Here is the input.
Amino acid sequence: MPVMTLPTPQDFVLARDVCSYGYFVLAPNVWDPRTKTLMRVLSLRDGATSDPVLVAIRQRAKGRLAITISHSLEPSQREVVRAQVSRMLRLDESAQRIAQFHQRDPRFAASGRGRIFRSPTLFEDVVKTVTSCNVQWPGTIQMNRRLCEVVGSAVVIAGRGPAATRAFAFPTPKQLARTRPGTLRSRCRVGYRDVRLVELARLFTLAPSKGGVDQAWLEDPATPDDAMFKYLVKLPGVGPYAAANIMQLLGRYARLPLDTESARHGKHVLGFKGSAAKLAKQVREHFAPLGEDAFRSYWFELWTQYEALKGPAWTWDRDGVGSTFVSDAARAMK
DNA sequence: GGTAGACCTGGACGC
DNA sequence: GCGTCCAGGTCTACC
Here is the structure.
C-alpha cells in the first residue's frame, strides 16, 4: 500500500498528542495501543460517495510521520490527506507556542502535553460536540459509531460481497443534510438532536453569502473571541458549553466549556463549594490567570485525573477504558 | 435577563 | 422482564 511521509514539529509525539482528548476514541477514529497507530477513514470530498480512503498513521522517527493509504491517490488527493491529518494532530501549533504554554503552566512541561486532538474537519468537530451534549459518554460513542455506519461512506478493507469487512467514514455535510431526521433518531439513536443535526449539516453545505457557516471566518486568527462565541451559539444544537468547546477545537483556549464535569472537578479536586453555578464561576476564575491558555491548563488537569485512575491514555481502547473513563472518574469523586 | 420545564437515551435500581 | 428514576446541555415559553 502507498505510504506518505509528513513532517511534524520536533516536540510532537503521536501517542501522547493523539490520546489527549476523548475524541480519539470516537468513530471513525481507531487507536491501536499495541502498535501506537491511529487509523480512520478520511473523506476526500463532500459528495455522494465522498471518496473515502483508509489511512494508518504511525510515528517512525522524531519529526516524521508515516501515513499508509488504502489505495493510490492523485497528488491533489494526497494534499487533502496531508491537510486533514495536520488538522487532527494540530501540527500547525509550533514547538514555540507549546513552550509558551509550558512557561505559563510548568506542570505540563515534563510530559510535553500541549496539543489537543481534534477532527480532520470543523464540521466533524461541531457534530461530535453536539453529540456530546446532554448525554453520557457511552451515548456519545454510540451516536458517532452509528452516524458513521448508517450515513458515512464505506471502504472495503477485507473480503468481498456481503461478507466483506468495511470501515466507515464520518458523514460529510451533504450526506448528513440529506438524511431524514427519523433515520437519525431510529438508527443512530441521536434522539431530539435529529432535526438540529440535519439543519447544522445543511448550514455547512451553504456558502456564507447564502447563510451558510463561514468556516474561513471561524478559522481566521483575526476573528475576535466574543464575536465567534456569539456566532456559534446561534447554530442549531449549540449552546454556551458547545460553543466554548468548538472554540477550543478551533485553537481558542481562553474560554472554558463548563459542564457538570467542571463542577465536579471544582468541588472534588479544587475544593470549591456552593451550587453548580457558583462552582462553575469559581472554576472559570481559577483558570482565568492562564489567559489564552486557560483551557489547556484546565483540560490537562482533568486529563491527568483520568489517567491517574485508568492509566496512560495511550493504553486505552475504545471499547474498554475509552468508553468508561469519564463515568469512572465521576464515580470516584462522588 | 433569569428561570422552569421539556426534550431523548441508556444505565441503575427495585420489584 | 418491567417500570421508574436519573444524568446530561439546549431550547423555548414565560415572568
Observations:
- The beta strands of chain A are 3-7, 30-32, 37-43, 52-61, 64-69, 154-158, 165-168.
